[in-house]
UniProtKB/TrEMBL annotation, chain A:
GO terms for cellular component: mitochondrion. This is Large ribosomal subunit protein mL44. It comes from Xylaria bambusicola. InterPro entries: Ribosomal_mL44_DSRM_fung, Ribosomal_mL44_DSRM_metazoa, RNase_III_dom, RNase_III_sf. The lineage of its organism: Eukaryota, Fungi, Dikarya, Ascomycota, Pezizomycotina. Keywords: Mitochondrion, Ribonucleoprotein, Ribosomal protein, RNA-binding.
From TrEMBL, chain B:
This is Uncharacterized protein. Pfam families: MRP-L20. GO terms for molecular function: structural constituent of ribosome. Residues 31-46 have a biased composition (Basic residues). The lineage of its organism: Eukaryota, Fungi, Dikarya, Ascomycota, Pezizomycotina. GO terms for cellular component: mitochondrial large ribosomal subunit. Residues 1-50, 99-126 are annotated as: Disordered. It comes from Xylaria bambusicola. Residues 12-23, 99-112 have a biased composition (Polar residues).
């Protein structure tokens, strides 16, 4: 029977006691089988491969319960920036989230806990979700773009960028994370339940960019609103066609980490920290599924959680000269030139007339629309005709990633359009 | 029910007149008038027969009522002409394929009327290179007399073509801009607001939000 230490029951002691003191660190380190640790290190550098005990081992030399009788010694031990991975197994919130997402039991709960730690909460790359989110971001962008291109082969590039953002961009992933029931902790720290999303508004974080370059002229682009051509947007900008921000000069932290996160520090300017952290959590979950369950499971997960969302692509269009564009289209495709025909009308002499105008090419109606004047109805009908051209879909066709499976049928080429209309 | 049945031919002929005849004032006066001299006659005139789907068929059997509300066609429904050659829907819809080939020789009366007379205008390409030079010379010499519309009239081409060929001098442009500014300055609040709203509607129309 141990002696009760009254001074340790003070509030300060409770606040500074690390959670891992509940499980003796020596036991946890020694009892872990070595092959598992090696396996995890090789596979994914998951949080189980290294514990904070090893990182802060210098501070833990005197961590035995017998020696920590002095309160000053307890205080001197540094606080972990995020909860200890061992606590993940005892978090009801985390278990509920794991079950709610129907994640496989192959994904340890420690990894899910790690996916909830934003780089702004814990800068150590082995304890935050930056690496997982990077893998997840690549997968999300790959599957989204592949699905969009095969499903809507005629989409113009600008609309494709917007649709990519609508499916796999920060706002959409933020909504997904909220729909999963992920709540943010008020502030990150060791004492927080691992089931909360942890990020900090003050510390720098990471923005996930699969590719993209900071342009040399990016300052002038922002200042003088220079035009960015679509070709250079495809080559230089990020997957959503947005400018990659110039990294600001941030004092380099020299904390002697063995794994450099210089790449992650490339872009630290984040407008909406909350949205970015939620999006990174979704990406990290996708990355974790890929690493632990394989690419097919990750694809199914993306299909059911991201691509199943409804996005009305016809609302993304904005035409400047629809009638000229339609004329150019008909000339390009050897159709008869488009003619506006009056299908029906009412109230021509009234204050609120309605005209229904159809655009015909030869004997085929290409589009129709109603409008308050003949010109407006004709313009709207031309817009509808162009939209129905651009939103052509061959239906459910196979994706290139279907052929990654073991017993996949040989790839049947899908329809490839010659390109958008240049007017 | 009997009175409605009796009224149906009248109603259908009226609606036919409304849709097809737009120009002749005699028809318009009948079709667009919504009242009669007396209340009972007006009420009688405004009695609309039910849609045929809602009437009991001749056989008297039960039937399914299919009368969807009028709606704009979806842009996700690709017109037959826009389907690529490789699309299986093109082969599946053979009747459409046959129709589009034979209809070229059918009568043009099956198509609805054009919305404007200018829609049927053919491109003429009648202006020669020398005429373009002359047009430029005239426009440069006296832009006030030889306005865009006057030049278009002289060379029998569209004003758009004239604007493609000739460029007014900066002084003339500045003068025109000042004239327009003076006109705009005379606008009252109502007209200014109406013009602003017209611009907003234009933007919304281009976005397809109107």
């Amino acid at each position: 029977m141990k002696r009760i230490r009254y001074q340790q029951l003070s509030r300060q002691w409770l606040a500074t006691t690390p959670a891992r003191s509940a499980t003796p660190s020596q036991v946890s380190r020694l009892s872990r089988p070595a092959p598992t640790a090696l396996h995890c290190q090789r596979r994914c550098q998951s949080s189980t491969s290294i514990t904070p005990d090893e990182v802060f081992s210098e501070a833990e030399v005197h961590d035995s319960p017998e020696e920590s009788t002095n309160i000053h010694e307890v205080r001197s031990k540094p606080l972990l920036p995020s909860p200890h991975p061992d606590r993940a197994l005892r978090s009801a919130k985390l278990a509920a989230l794991h079950a709610r997402l129907s994640l496989s039991s192959k994904i340890p709960r420690q990894v899910l806990a790690r996916a909830l730690v934003d780089p702004s909460a814990d800068a150590h790359p082995k304890f935050n979700n930056a690496n997982l989110a990077f893998v997840g971001a690549s997968l999300l962008q790959y599957h989204t773009s592949e699905w969009l291109v095969t499903r809507y082969p005629r989409l113009p590039m600008s609309i494709l960028f917007a649709a990519m953002k609508g499916y796999a961009g920060d706002p959409a992933l933020h909504r997904i994370a909220r729909a999963w029931g992920v709540e943010a902790a008020a502030a990150p720290g060791e004492e927080v339940d691992p089931g909360y999303l942890q990020f900090s508004h003050n510390n720098p974080t990471v923005k996930m960019h699969k590719w993209g370059y900071a342009r040399a002229e990016s300052k002038e682009l922002n200042k003088y609103k220079w035009r960015r051509g679509m070709s250079s947007r495809i080559v230089l900008d990020d997957p959503f066609g947005n400018l990659v921000d110039e990294p600001e000069d941030i004092p380099q932290e020299t904390d002697g980490l063995e794994v450099s996160d210089a790449r992650n520090k490339k872009d630290l300017v984040v407008q909406n920290v909350d949205k970015n952290a939620h999006a990174n959590f979704v990406r990290a979950v996708v990355g974790a599924i890929y690493l632990h369950c394989g690419s097919e499971t990750a694809k199914t997960f993306i299909k059911s959680h991201v691509l199943s969302r409804q996005l009305d692509l016809s609302n993304l269009f904005n035409f400047s000269l629809p009638q000229r564009e339609l004329t150019r289209l008909c000339a390009r495709e050897n159709f008869d030139p488009p003619v506006a025909r009056l299908l029906s009308e009412t109230g021509r002499l009234s204050r609120t007339p309605v005209y229904v105008v159809g655009i015909y090419s030869g004997y085929d109606k290409l589009g129709e629309a109603a409008g308050p004047s003949l010109d407006a109805a004709k313009s709207a009908a031309a817009i509808n005709a162009l939209k129905s051209w651009y939103l052509y879909s061959p239906g459910e066709v196979g994706l290139p990633s279907d052929t990654f499976a073991e017993d996949a049928a040989p790839w049947k080429p899908v329809y490839v359009d010659i390109g958008e209309i240049i007017s | 029910m009997e009175t409605r049945q009796a009224l149906r031919p009248l109603g259908s002929s009226l609606s036919h007149a409304t849709s097809s005849v737009t120009r002749s004032p005699a028809f318009r006066s009948i079709a667009s008038r919504r009242h009669q001299s007396t209340t009972s006659r007006t009420k009688k005139m405004l009695k609309i027969p039910p849609h045929p789907d809602f009437l009991t068929p001749q056989s008297g059997q039960n039937h399914i009522i299919y009368n969807p509300p009028a709606a704009a066609p979806s842009v996700y429904h690709t017109p037959f002409k826009f389907l690529p050659k490789s699309d299986p829907r093109r082969q599946a819809n053979l009747s459409q394929l046959v129709r589009s080939s034979t209809d070229l020789h059918a009568s043009r009366s099956s198509l609805p009327p054009v919305s404007r007379a200018t829609e049927n205008r053919e491109k003429k390409y009648n202006v020669t290179r020398e005429q373009v030079e002359e047009m430029r010379h005239l426009r440069a010499s006296d832009p006030v007399t030889w306005s865009v519309h006057k030049l278009a009239e002289k060379f029998q081409c569209g004003p758009f073509f004239v604007m493609m060929c000739c460029k007014a001098s900066p002084e003339h442009k500045e003068k025109e801009r000042q004239r327009l500014e003076a006109i705009k300055a005379r606008w009252g609040p109502v007209r200014t607001k109406a013009r602003e709203e017209r611009q907003k509607r234009k933007v919304l129309l281009a976005q397809g939000a109107l």
